[in-house]
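ok trying again, last paste got cut off:
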Amino acid sequence: MGEGDLAAVLESLRPAPESGGLADADAEVCARALGVDGVAVSVTFGNGHNELLWSTPGTSTRLEDLQFTLGQGPGPEAAASGTAVSVPDLAREPADRWPVLLPEALALGIRAVFCLPLRVGSACLGALTLQRATAGPAQEEPLPDAWIVTHALSAALIQDGESWEAFGAAEDGSHFYRAAVHQAAGMISVQVGISLAEALIRLRAYAFRQGRPLNEVADDVVARRVRFHQDDGDEPGVRGRRKD
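nice, full thing came through this time. structure:
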């Protein structure tokens, strides 16, 4: 952990006409500056879409995908409540808090998670998630630094308002990480005759039951290799049918 790394992250996130916001920042440098193994930023847009905007590759990205697929975890909790969620030892967390997520996160090798809300006034844009492979409370020094990063991230997101506005107006959000997921939800909505929200729930459930990444399943739906039907047995819409 070094002050130089933190300064570099903050400089890359500083609102300025020539700044690319999150695109200019290095998530791995941010993780190193904060003394954790990985970081991720997920936000919720005005139209209800949740999007992963920034993360270190590997475990942090997989954790964000898990939380989105399952609809539970410290990140969604922090974003919904607007307050920090600290889990210094996932293995000691009550099993009923996030019953499905906890064993999956532990299987990824994650032992500690710290989520800070991205707040602008009374509004919460999303959450910054820090994860570590070793259990234990966050060290005293990185936490104030992490809050400083959340303020910089919030400012960068507000500065990048044109992208937010474009995503809210776009039907597929084609330039975002979960573009295929939102496209697939739209297709399932038409196939089954249900709302987009219900279609997304069914897509998530199918991906989890299959033990496959949500984006991978969404690609199959968009490519018409998997199709959902109104008569999908006793768990409607969960059993997609894969075409040969």
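cool. The chain has a mean pLDDT of 81. The first helix runs from residue 3 to 13.
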